[in-house]
Structure prediction request, 187 residues.
Amino acid sequence: MKLIIGLGNPGRKYDKTKHNVGFMVIDELTRRYPEAKIQGAKFHSMYGTMQWQNETILFIEPTTFMNLSGESVKQWCNFYKLNPENIFVIHDDMDLPVGKIRIRKQGGHGGHNGLRNIIDHLKTNHFIRLKVGIGRPFPAQSVTQHVLSPFGKAQFPLIEDAIKEAAQACQDWIEGDTIEDVMTRYN
Prediction:
């Protein structure tokens, strides 16, 4: 079983904000795998599921708001007794330029409160994460204002490409590539 989690905030108010790129990647993946369309609610999240060569793939969008994402992730992991290496978390990253992606097998939270909460709840940082660059805030802009604002017109094509690239990296992993191969290809 593989668990693919896109981080974001629930509600239309946050749909196109920078903090919601994880949800955007999940949406792109479920367009590619229509049978996995997000349609159910369980463990403080919306989810879709599909089978790929006798393996169950779960697509998760926590509804706990970003900073409490670990509550949902832990419930999924406990219920299915998941190994952390089968968890793939997609999130925004201010330390990467807009439109760049990076994949890591493990690591710290880097100041990202959603990741911090997942690490705290799982008691490990040994899960895959795919970072989608959203760039740094403007000098007069707070971090909160930055992550909860939409992408600028000039940034939108970059982020659309990044979402497609991130979805393709997830798809490669779903369909059998090792995470090392995926990292080599996309990092």
